[in-house]
Amino acid sequence: MKRFLIYMVALLVAMDVAANPDSLSVNTHYDALAHWELGNKAYVDGDYGRAVEEYNAIIEGGEYSMPLHYNLANAYFKMGELGKAILHYNRALRIAPANEDVRHNLALAEAQTKDRIAVVPEFFLNRWMRTVRNSMSCMAWSILSLVVFAVVLLFVLLFLLSSHIGVRKAGFYGALVAVLLFVITTLFALSERKEMLQHDEAIVMGTAVSVKSSPDRSATDIFVLHEGTKVRVQTEMGEWCEVVIADGKKGWTERKNIEEI
């Protein structure tokens, strides 16, 4: 039992580190801190171009976090660069899916996009599960999973060590419920990790991007997408990507027209 506990703790911690690389990129470097302070000052002073330069310098140095992407998105939004603003709001949201400020500003930015695409209806249970999962980050779900696992062990000990029949029953049924909660929280943590690490979503960067019937510039234009629209990359072929939009329509566009979240 002791070995199993050690193994599970190590596994969940490793999973959370892989899912939450931001936890390893705490800003301890002087240069990054200097850029951060200069970027914040420039933003407060209304010099959004300078703020963008300072924030991007931090990212180019290998550092990133939810506040960094969020501030960068706000600066781009102030400059009217809708595509880049939505891109970085989405990147911030991947790190902190439960952050209401990011969700609010993302909604404001998306409201200014030109494309009004009807979303394919989603089964209500899937939608509910996603809402619950996004209520916390991968790290939070991982920690909660560890706590629930400790509760499982506590109930198991009650069942094994107690001589009172009532306590043994409570330990048995409590362990069953706790195991179920452990499975659910672990699945949520793994699902959040998978979403953070996937690279199949992208934002349209061009003002007006033609989506074609095949990966060829001479191919027929199927429809046009505008800056800030989110797409899902389904297939890649050289400098071309097959993208799918929210209503299920798909086609090909050049890679340079989109940027992965």
How would you characterize the overall build of this protein?
This protein is α+β, with helices and mostly antiparallel strands and 261 residues long. Helices cover 58% and strands 14% of the residues. A 5-stranded antiparallel sheet has the order 6-5-4-1-7. Strand 2 and strand 3 (221-226) form a beta hairpin. Helix 1 (2-19) runs antiparallel to helix 8 (138-161), helix 4 packs antiparallel against helix 5 and helix 5 runs antiparallel to helix 6. The longest helix has 33 residues, at 165-197.
The assigned structural class equals: alpha+beta
The oligomeric state is single chain
**First-last Cα distance:** 42 Å
Give the strand tally: 7
Helix content: 55-70%
Share of β-strand residues = 5-15%
Q: What integer value in Å does the Rg equal?
A: 23 Å
Q: So how many helices?
A: 9
What are the low-pLDDT stretches, counting only 5+ consecutive residues below 50?
Answer: 1-28
Strand/helix succession: HHHHHHHHHEEEEEEE
Largest sheet: 5 strands, antiparallel
Mean pLDDT: 87
Q: Spatial order of the strands in the main sheet?
A: 6-5-4-1-7
Shape: globular
